[in-house]
Amino acid sequence: MSESSLYQRLGGYDAIAAVCHDLLPRLQNDPQLGRFWQHRGDDGIAREKQLLIDYLCSAAGGPMVYTGREMKQSHIGMQISQSDWDRFLGHLNGTLDAFAVPMPERTDVLAFIDSTRADIVEA
Known about the structure:
Keywords: Heme, Iron, Metal-binding, Transport. By secondary structure, this protein is mostly helical. Helix content is 64%, strand content 0%.
């Protein structure tokens, strides 16, 4: 018997989408991180949210196809600092707490997210 993918263990598309729907408003409303969404239209934010869902589903082993840019290209020039990253992780952990994500899946999610840090943090 093969081990279930992280996508399956997290609950599939609907669960990952629900996490994104919880996480993004936390980030947008954060006094330090909100600057990344200022002056953005609702349509652009909705597109970004869908790309995030697709990216996470695909990276977790799901059937989604991510059609967006690579993480480095998407974040270059945004001057995301280590402090920004740490605040993001705080919100991510708050979201994972809100959904009572079990420790094995939480560990895998956080390890994956950490693997993207070098491509996102630049300042």
